[in-house]
Specification:
5 helices; 7 strands; alpha+beta; seven-stranded mixed beta sheet
């Protein structure tokens, strides 16, 4: 996967993403096809990821949209010197070895368009597949915390 383009989220992309359903045990990441989800995806913090053929393959989000509610109580969102990111790939593309290149392209997009070089993301601890990708790209594991009866881990990377 190369030459991913990140574009401002459109309603059409948002409606498509809202219908994505992930298989067990990743169904936790499915959003739900409702107007509230569409509204969130269109709030300006999400960008659609398109491949070379212009097909929607994923999304990336920053700031508030990328934060897990329990992280506030855990005190992980107190650093103004970092940017929080979230990302998702179309379900049929996950688990096929494309995650690292998708993440790297997303990081380049963020580093080129935001004024922060320190990146933080949060992932459910059961998602070992994603954690391995994040580590391969250079993210370091941090503390864990609970949110909505799930354990999450904080991961950080500094742009060099």
């Amino acid at each position: 996967m190369n030459l991913i383009r990140f574009l401002s989220m459109t309603e059409a992309y948002a409606r498509d993403i809202a219908t994505w359903t992930y298989p067990e045990p990743y169904q936790f990441y499915s959003m739900g096809d409702d107007e509230e989800t569409i509204h969130e995806l269109m709030d300006g913090s999400y960008h659609a990821a398109l491949d070379e053929q212009g097909e929607l393959i994923g999304f990336i989000c920053t700031g508030e949209a990328a934060r897990v509610p329990g992280g506030y109580a855990a005190g992980i969102y107190n650093n103004d010197q970092q940017i929080d990111i979230g990302l998702g790939m179309r379900p049929d593309l996950t688990g096929n070895g494309l995650g690292a290149s998708f993440l790297v392209e997303g990081l380049h997009f963020i580093w080129n368009n935001k004024n922060q070089k320190n990146v933080q993301l949060v992932v459910a601890t059961f998602n070992e597949r994603a954690i391995k990708v994040y580590e391969r790209v250079g993210f370091q594991k941090g503390r864990t915390f609970l949110s909505r009866d799930r354990e999450f881990i904080v991961m950080n990377k500094v742009y060099k």
